[in-house]
Amino acid sequence: MTAVDSLGKTPSETLSGRPGSSWRGKVGYLGGLLLAAALLVAAYAKAIDPEAFAQQIRREGLALLGAPFTWAVGVIALEVGLGVALVLNLRRRSVLTVASVLVALFVFLTARTYWRATHGGLSAEEAASCGCFGNLVERTPAEAFWQDLLMLVPALALAWIGRPGLQRGRWRAVAASLSGLAALAAGAFAWLAPGLPLDDLATRLAPGREISALCAGSGDERICLDSLVPGLAAGGRWVVLADVRAAGFPALATALNRYAARASTESLPAVAVLADLTQEEQMELFWRLAPAFDLHEVPAAVLRPLYRQLPRTFFVEEGRVTRTYPGLAPEIGSVAAPDNPKTDDSQP
Amino acid sequence: MISPSRLRGWQRSLALVACAAVLAASTACGADAAFPPASASVPSAGASAPSASASAPSASASAAAQTVPADAVLRNFELSGDFVLAIDGKEQPKAEIYFSESARAYVLIAAEFPSPILVSAPTQSVDTIDLMKVSKQPNGVIDLLADAVFEPAGKYKVEGPNIEFTYSGKKLRVSPRPYLIGKHTGQELLAYNPSYERKARNYTPDAGIMKRLKERKEPVRILTFFGSWCPHCSTHVPLLLKVEQGLAGGRFQFEYVGMPKGAAFGDVPEAKQYKVTGVPTAILFVGDKEIGRIPNAQWANPEVALDLQLNGPKSNK
Q: What region does A8 belong to: left with phi over 0, alpha with psi -120 to 50, or beta?
């Protein structure tokens, strides 16, 4: 017969933090694992594109002090720290309290977005970035709310059951140290992530993806890149995702004009620019920059999940993405170089 | 379509050219003061030769137009509905504005000015062109002839989506056409923006589906919310206009509601009533009952979308 102490814990629990044979401990640990899995996956999705998460924090008005990016990195580190602690069954009151606050915040935010979506007043960009899984997972406001509610809250509730209250100080110290180290490592990774070549991992745009699968919205209002830019469905062409309001856009447009001038006379693939811009902005750009390339308006809801930083270039062949590049593709850059004698953006 | 005043302008120019031929283009045609001599030309990449007809003009300008080819770049100017022209603050509804994608330039033709005006975005410059060097094709497209010469009229100033410049002592402003707001017919949409008509003309709906739709006995009303400021509407609504043309005489009734941009969007009563949150949105009614909407993904072939809503997916197999 296994010895059980007054709190229902077996000796194995008290020594190592393992759940032991108590059903309460097992159920609680299972809840903790489920919550940990959700937190770690969410942290991963955000850590590879912390800028997007920082933008979300800015939109939600949560960065009361300090830069949104710093908050984003902090939250990612916290999620990883909590996740690792729960995996190690470090279900201390303090850990679960912080986890509860975090879960409550996530559910509140998704609920608020859901409410605004059903009552109007939600911008397309806000609708595009629903919940805590970054840009990797496409969810509607309703899906984000119900998934977070049904996934996080029951797991959290279970995690409170059968907490291993008699863990020895040494195990607690080891588990806490590991959690802390994991949090620090996650924070450092997130901090450095914008400079790492993770675009294909962090966004929905990667080699092999069909243009028709790059969509936003649901039901009748679902819209996909192939219908927004029908020309991408056939043949091969370069596509540059760009921010037309960025200070560097005129230089980019000049380079693309040079490329387009040469592409029109040689058998080079055409280039198109996709940007979230209004018709008025498009007209102003025409007068100022005379784009010789196709400039297409694509809603932020479709565009934002396709990049971490702008500009980003990809090549599409017969409706399928074959190559991606941060910035301008070298193939375009070399043709568009000002010292290339063959480039000429001469006037009509 | 060339207006009578334009025709008069052309006739005047023809007379002036004939006058120049007789008097060796020197001094006597003083009425032509607004027209610069050919020597002041600013040739384009494709119109580098001095104007032969200006220095030794033919008595028959139209004959010359037939022999001189169109400029390699300054060609294919199509009537545009994107902008309107104002002269000294007064809008010119009859002014014609043509756009060439390859030239990245507009040609403005207004009764107030005897010469067409070329507004070129790559150089941000304004030039006038001898009207006789503008050739109009039967399909309404205009080309500048390869020997056209250009008289510089300065640079334009950009103010948001508008440009301004001064020509012949008058202040010209090219601004985006005001949005089409409120209820309209398909004909009114086609008249609003010539590009709608072109896109409609270039679209061929599925003949089998159109036949099936036309055979429908029960009346259907299609209420389409669109924004004349919305690029996707400009792409897709003309396709529905073509479908409407094809279903003329059938049991289909098409109505269009032009939506304002921004916060006013939500204030449109019909949009509130039918919970329209984006454009284009086409709602199908049989009697007073809404039976469906054209999904965003099916706007590329609106007749297919209509058929799916009315006859179900089996009809398209």
A: left
- Average pLDDT along chain A: 84
B62 bridge partner residues: none
Residue A18 has pLDDT above 50, yes or no: yes
DSSP conformation letters of A163-228: --TT--HHHHHHHHHHHHHHHHHHHHHHHHGGGSS-HHHHSS--TT-BGGG-EES-GGG-EEHHHH
Using DSSP's 3-state secondary structure scheme, residue A117 falls into: helix
Cβ of B121 within 8 Å of Cβ of A120? The answer is: no
The residues, any chain, with a CB within 8 Å of residue A180's CB and separated by 6 or more, are: A81
B299 to chain A, any CB pair closer than 8 A? The answer is yes
Contacts of B232 in chain A (CB under 8 A): 228, 297
Q: Test B46 with A223 for CB contact under 8 angstroms.
A: no
CB proximity A200 to B under 8 Å:
no
pLDDT of residue A172: 82
Over the stretch A272-307, which tens digit does the pLDDT of each residue have?
Answer: 999 998 888 999 999 999 999 999 999 888 898 899
pLDDT digits (tens, 9 = 90+) for A224-241: 888 888 888 888 999 999
